[in-house]
Prior knowledge:
alpha+beta, Immunoglobulin-like, 2 domains, binds fe (ii) ion
Amino acid sequence: MVFAVEDTTAQLTWLGSLLPADAGRRGARHHDTAPAASVTAQGRGVAADATITARDLATGDVLGSRPYLDGSGSIELAGLPPASTSTVSLDVDGRPAGCVRLTTTATLGPELSRFATLSDIHLGLDAFGLRGKIVEGDPATPSRSDRAGDSGGPIHLRAASLALDQLNAWGAEHLFIKGDLVDRSTPAAWALAGRLLLRPRPPVTVMTGNHEHNHAGLVSPLTGAVSAGIDVVDLARRVDLPGLSVLCVDTIRAGVHGGRVANTVTSAALDLARAAPGPVMVLTHHPIDRFDLPVSYPPGVPNRQGAALIGRLANECELLLVSSGHTHAHRLRTIAGVSTTEVGSPKDLPGVWAGYSVAEGGVRQVLRRVDSPDINHWLDHTRFALGGIWGRWSVGRLADRSLQVRRGAR
Length: 410
Ligand SMILES: [Fe+2]
């Protein structure tokens, strides 16, 4: 599928093997999180050192390549013409492996800066699903044994580490974590957060989510964060990057799953927006609900409160985009005339981080699915949550994931 598309780049992803097996059904459901050892690359008639190549079908130009991956994966495309439709073919050492059509966006002009976001990592939990029944394979499985000597840690830490490495390689100049970094505010969970942030990375700004403030914690979020060397956002904080200010706004209601916009937060956010040197993007943990009463799960910020905040901020600054986490899903909605996005988590399907490319003409959301054989098998496994609904619901439409907002469009 076309997972993400920008002006000259895109990411294609697939679930299950890119090639049909000589034996077995394509895309078979593997409830085991271990690599699908039953059907090897050789079993599909593919050399161990095979290469996946993406080409423009019309011109034959190579747009991307990567080593063959026997299972779910992705390929990066580059050098696409802006604002045009192309047909892209994939092959594995010349063996056809599918075709997709995609349409790139128009360019926004020279890039001024780029930053990234992560959210909903839930360090310390390492289970998924409504009742937490999806857990990583038994320690005796081959995948775990293979890792016995490594220090990658539990699955949520490994998924977040991979996302951090990938966004760092992408060139993010700042990282914002939009809450639920830890599942409960415990010393052990914050120690994992500290360990995560020891990796090579850009400067980071950390917001808290409802999970840091639930009643299952053992230490206050502030105390826990400080122990990990993290200075969490209180009320609101603005980070000025070339071409865009990022305004982090606290939507927490301690001990409650849903969010709110407190008067103190509104006041702090308005002051910061008013003083912004240029256009602004707002980050929150909770998205803004469709109605004042929550009719979907998980609950966000009541519509009236959220829409009022966006409207007031938009009166004080050039507000381009609002983005949240919390739902672990992907949605694009317009609220009070401003585009708002929900972006998922690196640790459950589809497994993402988001980049933002800031240009003279506006800002572009660059969503990327994480990709590593170790993590992909876990992500594939999580799609069966909620009786399989999760795999279809969380991914959203391409328009929910890939978008750009032009300056002066409102
Ligand atoms: Fe949350």
